[in-house]
Write a structure and sequence with these properties.
- The protein has about 250 residues and is of the alpha/beta class.
- It has a single domain (about 5-245), classed as Rossmann fold (3-Layer(aba) Sandwich).
- The chain is about 40% helix and about 20% strand.
- It contains eight helices and seven strands.
- It has a seven-stranded mixed beta sheet with strand order 3-2-1-4-5-7-6, sandwiched between helices.
- The longest helix has 21 residues, at about 210-230.
- The mean pLDDT is about 95.
Amino acid sequence: MEKRKEREKAFHDVVYEDHSRWKVVDKYYAITAGRERFYQDFVRRHSPGRRVLDYGCGQGWSSLALAELGARVSGIDISDTGIAHAQEAARARNLVIDFRTMDAETLEFPDCSFDLVCGTAILHHLDLRRAFAEVARVLQPGGVAIFMEPLGHNPLINLYRRLTPQLRTVDEHPLTMADFAMAEAFFDRVDLRAYHLSTLAAVPFRRWPGIFRPVLAVLERLDAGLFRTLPISRRYAWYAVAILHRQAA
């Protein structure tokens, strides 16, 4: 195994046993409901009765939910610890899910195995050219992949990342617009939705719902208008949801 992948595996084996390191950033996720809702709604619409790959499944929570919707789910992760937790959770719910420890850059599935590939905060840990090639390979013609990933253009967010190295691996790389342009070499169409620019200003109000909710709603509308009228502003968002379409046969 490459040194980079050994570091990623070791980091995530620890993370899946001890979640305490994430408490320092929990506050920022108070603003993410809109992004999560879009991602989850998309995945739920495209899952029932279909073959789904949970790409970088961690402890398998998304895989469990998709299997309960009637999808035929495979979940892969580089962490043995994460996969062990996922398998245990599936057994507890009497769900049949194909969980495997696997390198996301060298998938052990035949071509055209899946209708949908989905993942959250996984691509920025990978060699993107290898990852995009593998995702495109295992998607059937007309299939789609969706990923929710951090962006790497905002200087203030990048400063925070440099000040909190314990929360990330040394090899991870939040995505850039050039990375999404690269994806166009592997997919017929790449759709991108940006999230969280001005909405980060709502975080200090999270403990007061009566203030937080209306402030967040206003800032979400502000972000939507800004991203629509000034597309270059999308690169400075915290996160993006990317939808990658493989051309139908």
